[in-house]
Amino acid sequence: MAVKWLRDGLSGTPDDVERFLREAQVAERVAPFCTAQVLDTGVADERPFIVSEYIEGPSLQQVIRKDGPQAGADLHRLAIGTIVALAAVHEAGIVHRDVKPANVTLGAGGPRVIDFGIARVLGAT
Question: Which are the catalytic amino acids?
Fold first, then answer.
């Protein structure tokens, strides 16, 4: 499991806490094979946290830094898996708004889109 805490100094208002915990609510709407499943949320020592499934594997950013750009069949598998994950995000009515190599984790089951911190629910104001 992985634990994400709201950075010290950013949890001063109820709005800050609500915005942070909204990330978990957004992620819970997405098919679990496409992202890290949210296991729990809460507040401890006045700091909110999100507990999620830990995805064993590097980020796409780490792979590119180590091995360079993907090509051939590896690139096709990566592109198709990432597109399927993003389609599931959109199917859940969410716009991620921060898709980048650091937010794609390459787990054993394929790419997973993570970090819904600035995502928006479609139709929300």
Answer: 98
- Enter the tokens of residue 28: 């819970």
**Predicted TM-score of the model (pTM):** 0.82
Q: How far is CA 34 from the centre of its chain?
A: 9
Neighbours of 15 (CB within 10 A): 8
- Map out the domains of the chain as residue ranges: 2-121
pLDDT above 60 (res 31): yes
Superfamily per CATH, domain 2-121: Transferase(Phosphotransferase) domain 1 (1.10.510.10)
Q: In which residue are the tokens 């909204």 written?
A: 22
How far is the C-alpha of 16 from the C-alpha of 13, rounded, in Å?
5
Give the CB-side neighbour count of residue 55, counting CA atoms within 13 A.
24
